[in-house]
């Protein structure tokens, strides 16, 4: 049986997986890169999963509320400023996923841009969606050689919405993610 560790930042993003032949484990990581990395590392130590699946809400600049992106590429926008000094700020989790044959039929490709600030003003942001946890989780999983993928539901348009709009859209995100994972995909 395949052990899948499902991560989500806040209770409003929780979605139960109803796939056959899996043993799901769930961990609420909290908001932000540090908390997320810590709680994920602890859960990995306890569960020893075959795959980590991050699910949650995200903001965007160029897309619509309700869009879903499957992210295998991650950017740390806080460290992007240090790229010219040779510091890493991008992770691609595709190779390990392909090697294991996980999520290969999930085609809604996107790039997730992670940072510790909730973006409310329009700025130049690389990627399709922005969040506050996925890059850190991708980093932890890569260091432990565990396949990682992130599915994000767009809840807000950066520069048009506020934290309050995000909170109001969490129920929509939960429903959209549940439909995507349990109806459209139904399996890993």
Automatic annotation (TrEMBL):
Residue intervals of the Nucleoside phosphorylase domain: 12-175
One Pfam family named in its UniProt record: PNP_UDP_1
GO biological process: L-methionine salvage from S-adenosylmethionine; nucleoside metabolic process
GO CC list: cytosol
Transmembrane segments annotated in the record for this chain: none
Organism superkingdom: Bacteria
GO MF terms held by the record: adenosylhomocysteine nucleosidase activity; methylthioadenosine nucleosidase activity
Name of the molecule in the record: Nucleosidase
Species, as recorded: Bacteroides acidifaciens
